[in-house]
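Person: Please work through this fold.
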Amino acid sequence: MLSDRYLEEVHGLLERIRATQAEAIGAAAEAAANALANGGGFFVGPLGHGNEGDLLSRAGGLMALRPFNFSFHLDNP
């Protein structure tokens, strides 16, 4: 069944992420917790399709999040 195959693929992907990235994810979580505990915050850049609004504009959202916007222009005659 297609749904079973999909779930197997998702499970495999999550297992691969856990096996290869758990240490890095833990270090990032520790850094984030330390930043918040010491009065720091996080900048959220454009994620595509306006998804950053979900992090920044929802009622009850984490107030330590701040928008980070940038632009880039290159002239190459």
About this structure: Residues 2-37 form the longest helix (36 residues). The two ends are 54 Å apart (CA to CA). The mean pLDDT is 88. The longest strand covers residues 42-44.
